Amino acid sequence: MMQDSLARALGGLKGTRMDDVAADHVRRRLELGWVERAARRRPRFAVPGFARAFAAASLVVLVAMTTMHAAADNPLYGARVVVEDSLVAFQSDPVGYLSQLYAERLEEAARFEATGNVLAASRARSAQSEALRLLNQISPPEPEQSPEPSASTSITLPAPTASPETTAVATGSPTPEPTATPRPPVRTATPTVKPATPKPTATPTPTPTPRPTTTTPTPTPMDVHAYGYVLYADGSAVDGACVSTSLDGTCVAGSIQGRVDLRFSAKKGQSITLYFRNYDASRGGTLHGKVTVTVGGPEVALGTITLR
Predict the structure, then answer these.
(1) What are the tens digits of pLDDT across the range 165-181?
(2) DSSP output for 133-194
(3) How many other C-beta atoms can be found within 10 angstroms of the C-beta atom of residue 262?
């Protein structure tokens, strides 16, 4: 009986329509219930906004420091080179800043070449060429030098042993002989007096004049500009060849498109030996060459050096 009554009541509700006021009231209650439910499901712990900002700033600083200390074998080395090159415009002495960058990248390339890391050495050589390009834009080369100047490095060379001086010995002058005195005429009993013929006077030997002593002047050091070209055996120019004063020594200069320019202090007549090397994997590894020249003036031509 109850089931039949319930079925009839539900069937009657099918045709019943709720009025608008009741519908709006039910809708507001449902919306409020969903808002309260979402608030209850919100996590209890929330990170403050200043903490998120501080974490983001710390992450940026950490990435920047890692990038600025990245070596040539690090993937971030390219970003470091871009940042360092972009800081040129903010330097009070851009020439000195770029010169320091060039020297650091040259030393870094030589270090990786010595360890056999070809990829890192090529990255350092590219960064070195970029620093030199920026340096040429800011400080153009002098007219008498190559259109692409290299960084000049002053080196000290051993002084040559001075040759012993030759001293001329003066010869003593001989003692002149005394002059003979003529005898007086002898008077005789005859009134005619015959004068005596005087003996000739001896001529003294002239005293030789001593020769002046000649002193060889000691040469003084002067600024010397040496230049030349570094080529491979096939005649192609070598870019970035290391120039040193001893075999496998520290690089004091480098070649740029085959051209070598360096300045040092030396004496006239001094003999100088320079060593050249460059690593090229396609040519079999590290190639060497050397040249010996004698300083004759402030300009010294090294000629063409072939790496083999």
Answers:
(1) 444 434 444 444 545 45
(2) HHHHHHSPPPTTS-SSPPPP---B-PPPPPPPPP-PPPPPPPPPPPPPPPPPPPP-SSS---
(3) 22
Look at the pTM and tell me if it is higher than 0.85: no
Structure letter (DSSP) for residue 89: G
The helix (H) or strand (E) run that includes residue 97 is helix 94-115
* Alpha carbon distance 129, 140 (integer Å): 15
Tens-digit pLDDT profile for residues 177-214: 545 455 555 454 455 555 555 555 556 666 666 666 66
Every domain of the chain with CATH number 2.60.40.10 lies at 222-307
Report d(CA 255, CA 96) in Å as an integer: 20
* 77 and 70 Cβ atoms separated by less than 8 Å: yes
The CATH number that domain 222-307 falls under is 2.60.40.10
